[in-house]
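Quick start: what a row looks like.
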Amino acid sequence: MNTTLKVLFCILVLQVGLVLLTHRKGSKNEIDLSHPLLPLPFEKVDRLVISGAESHQAVLSKEEGIWKSDEYFGFPLNQDKIGSLFTDLKELRMSWPVGKTLLAAKQFLVTKDNFEKKFEFYEGDNLIATLYFGSSPSFRKSHIRVEGEENTYAVKFSSYEYQVKSKSWLNRRFYKLERDAVERGQVLTKPGAIT
């Protein structure tokens, strides 16, 4: 019995040593939870293309600080909704990955050929980042992967709030026009820009 206790004690010491070794400060396995998941200069983004799995696509462009729809002849978009999207994306932080390979990314539907939604961020004609949204592990959560990385994360983000159709991004305050404003020619006042 005494020999068994010694063996078990040695195994315990070995396990504690392995835990300390893999979780010590500066370990490769350590993740900086304060680091943004998408380190992107959002103020430089002037075109956003949102694609869906079924070839639907919304193209949103910024001209002179105002977001407009390419599909609807430059019709003003909901500036607050785009601002809310960018705020939500800025607040995403690194976490422990749920998958660390492209095979896992395929299972979570966050690959180039297999995704639920894809967000492409442009500065001029330069594609500066691509973000894939996949399956949903639970309510108001999404699997997500940044192009060029193998890790897949589960984050608090409701991708269903940001639709693939351009129509859902239009500024609906222009749908209702007061008769007096039309007669005075004050219909298309410039909506506020995102800062």
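That is the whole record. The chain has four helices and eight strands. The longest strand covers residues 126-133.
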